[in-house]
From TrEMBL:
Residues 596-628, 659-692 are annotated as: Disordered. This is Nucleoside phosphatase family-domain-containing protein. Keywords: ATP-binding, Hydrolase, Membrane, Nucleotide-binding, Transmembrane, Transmembrane helix. InterPro entries: GDA1_CD39_NTPase. The keyword Acetylation does not apply. One of its GO terms (molecular function) is GDP phosphatase activity. It comes from the Eukaryota. GO terms for cellular component: Golgi apparatus; membrane. Belongs to the GDA1/CD39 NTPase family. The chain crosses the membrane at residues 518-535. It comes from Immersiella caudata. The active site is at E146 (proton acceptor). Pfam families: GDA1_CD39 (PF01150). One of its GO terms (biological process) is CTP metabolic process.
Amino acid sequence: MGKKSRWGVILDAGSSGTRLHIYQWKDPEKARKKASAEELRSLPKLVTEKKWTKKIRPGVSTFGEKPKDVGPEHLNDLVQHALKYIPEDKIQDTPIFLMATAGMRLLPKVQQTGLTREICSYLQQNTKFSLPDCGLHIQVIPGETEGLYGWIAANYLLGGFDRPDAHKHGKGHHTYGFLDMGGASAQIAFAPNATEAEKHANDLKLLRLRTLDGAPAEYRLFTASWLGFGVNRAREAFVEALQEVYVETHSKELPDPCLPKSLRTTLDGTVVTEKKPNEMTLVGTGAFQECLELTQPLLGKDKPCPDSPCLINGQHVPAIDFDVNHFVGVSEYWHTTHGVFGGKDNEAYDFTTYLKRVKDYCSRDWSAIASSIDSREKNDLRNAQEACFKASWIINVLHEGVGIPRIGIDKMPGFNVSHGALEHDKDKGFLDPFQAVDKIDKVEVSWTLGKMVLYAAGQVPPKSGDDTYPVGFGSNGPATIPHDFQFAGSTWRAPGATGNQTIDEWEDYMGKAKGTPGTGFFAFVVLLIFVGYFFRKKDRRMRFYGKVNSFMRRSRRPGSPRKSARGFSGLTNKLFGRSTPYERVMEEGEANQFELGDVDDDDYSDSSDGSRYGVGASGSGSGARASGLATPKVNAFDPLSVPFGFSALDRSGLVVRTESRERLVPHLQATGRRSRAGSPTRLKSPLVPPQA
């Protein structure tokens, strides 16, 4: 893509580690010039490579009590990895995000705040990446948002957005559901059928994207998250339940049907090679059917359901129509159905086949399993000992929790799909109720991709400069921009005010202007010194004043108002001292000749909304081009359209900002939206006048 490309960096701060992702896409304004009709109806095309990712352990959440160490001991390696691949001249134009998930959600709020502030400060002080707003770029995202981003990524890669005609699942449905299972939480996101969408409209999220031709694309989907229902947290809950079952026996050995036969571990999962007195251990029995039965109660299906229907733990979820809702599962859904159980990359999930593989594996003696694994690969050993429990948890969540039909056992839905969908999806299992995936067309299915797709879509100029439908997501309802709307964090570049000047030429100009900031100031200082020297004596000042004032009176036409004389008199009063009593009385006596000049409203509106300095300009033609990283235009008359607290750093390095939500629209504080005014670093521009 070369000079026409855009880059983005995002750090997925999970419970077990942090993974760096780099994405690249063609600048939307340039991409649309040579795009075909089909490409214009599609979202921006993002690319990534395997070498652009890097994961380190442990997770960011482990620095909760030592936040000062998170930068040098955790983030530095990831940042240095990113710098290997992003061109140096693109760094300042490249946004960097760190979004933490379930591991950070479990920390106390005070530790969450301390960590996010320290992370933002470290990145701002030690990198040149674009990070204009800490609250937007560095945050702990809710599970529902994580699920929404994952839903975008899955449908983006499968083609559900760009080619809806080739993915007709029946009943006007062409998108796929999304399931994510991590270590600490689990997520679900899907678009209900038309009947359920109307019935549960208040439970849905409005998602708005923008295709390359500038047209808005709207979707309404349901998202939910279960914190504490990831595989690692579920395992902890299971071990606690085992202790309660055997507490009355006073035994130090607890039979565990979810461990391979004869495997001995401590309660936290460490393999026991030598038995110690008074140390409680778990002893594997390899009875997988019993394991399934003991893990099922952990789903909380017996919890009260105040808003029916419910799935796991009393959580309300609209009824799922498996005739049209086909789900893809990522993370542990993939690793646990493949990995040690030998599933092939493109093999469709089949419950009967999978169950047989798991039972055969778990009934084997641990010594036989361990001997087949390289003892130096600690992660492989750990995965092998945890595989049986994870398999039981995945099976229960899928079929007892979500209700995914079991192929070969349960009644299967009748699929009404287009011929194109059959050709594209049949062999890969995407027409089944559930299919575990890791990559689609060699691209990893990660929620981070969904976040960056949303960001890139926000850079596409809307049709005719219409900002009525900004890119982002919020509550579903009649409002064009919901009160809790979360903007994409990017915007298009507005047309410039320099005639035929191109974007690159304008940026070159701004770069040169930025490179010589001291020249004008130096000249101004020299001028002040000269004036001060010339007028250092009072008699010289008064002679100069008399000559100029006499000239001004002679040059005035008879009968004309004394605007010029009075204006100059005010200036001379400040420079030379007060005028004579005669002059003062004369001006006051002619006050009736004065009138207020016309005020150019456009000049003031330009400066107040920031458009002439590139803040979300939408084609006013009155200022510099906004960077692709600038935030949406501030409209002081429409508080719901403002991404409060956003600021922006343009590509030439000039800093611009909008005011905080509390300052611009105080009455919105009652909505419960979080202000970003507390961000550790607020970049401010000397160009923007203070708000009244």
